[in-house]
Amino acid sequence: MASASSAPAQQVIAKFGGTSVANYDAMQKSAGVVLQTPGVALVVLSASAGITNALIELAQGCPRAQREKCLKQIRDTQYEILSRLPENAVVQNEIDRLLGNITTLSDAAALATSSALVDEIVSHGEIMSTLLFTEVLREQGAQTQWFDVREVLKQIRDTQYEILSRLPEN
């Protein structure tokens, strides 16, 4: 029988919603919670507050004036956080690339949309917040690594498809 002291340490998954990562100050507070909580192995984040709604509006193919308003809101939110991060050139380049993707995809959605296009556009909110939050954690001295959970989900989907394709047909 194993003693209690040899039991593996409990791993914690921390989840923060949009208000908890709404801006730089909110991210700082959430990062503090992560760093003060023993055993945090994974942090899951929503998009910053208001970003998902703006992305959904873009994905639904809104008129150009509304697209520009939504894009400005998204850009302003990301840049407010970026402006407070030291040495942010690498993450800024990635945020700029993602903002460019959102612009291109929202232009496409204005012509015709699909559930796949909606998913692609909306996913950018979480990607940007996790990239920025990773930098906030690093700024506070954490050794952390960002990864794209979509790769894990794709592997799960592909595995499920492979298993289903092997089932005999009735």
UniProtKB/TrEMBL annotation:
<feature type="domain" description="Aspartate/glutamate/uridylate kinase">
    <location>
        <begin position="12"/>
        <end position="161"/>
    </location>
</feature>
<dbReference type="Pfam" id="PF00696">
    <property type="entry name" value="AA_kinase"/>
</dbReference>
<keyword id="KW-0418">Kinase</keyword>
<dbReference type="GO" id="GO:0009090">
    <property type="term" value="P:homoserine biosynthetic process"/>
</dbReference>
<dbReference type="GO" id="GO:0005829">
    <property type="term" value="C:cytosol"/>
</dbReference>
<protein>
    <submittedName>
        <fullName>Aspartate kinase</fullName>
        <ecNumber>2.7.2.4</ecNumber>
    </submittedName>
</protein>
<dbReference type="GO" id="GO:0004072">
    <property type="term" value="F:aspartate kinase activity"/>
</dbReference>
<dbReference type="GO" id="GO:0009089">
    <property type="term" value="P:lysine biosynthetic process via diaminopimelate"/>
</dbReference>
<dbReference type="InterPro" id="IPR036393">
    <property type="entry name" value="AceGlu_kinase-like_sf"/>
</dbReference>
<comment type="similarity">
    <text>Belongs to the aspartokinase family.</text>
</comment>
<dbReference type="InterPro" id="IPR042199">
    <property type="entry name" value="AsparK_Bifunc_asparK/hSer_DH"/>
</dbReference>
<dbReference type="InterPro" id="IPR018042">
    <property type="entry name" value="Aspartate_kinase_CS"/>
</dbReference>
<keyword id="KW-0808">Transferase</keyword>
<dbReference type="InterPro" id="IPR001048">
    <property type="entry name" value="Asp/Glu/Uridylate_kinase"/>
</dbReference>
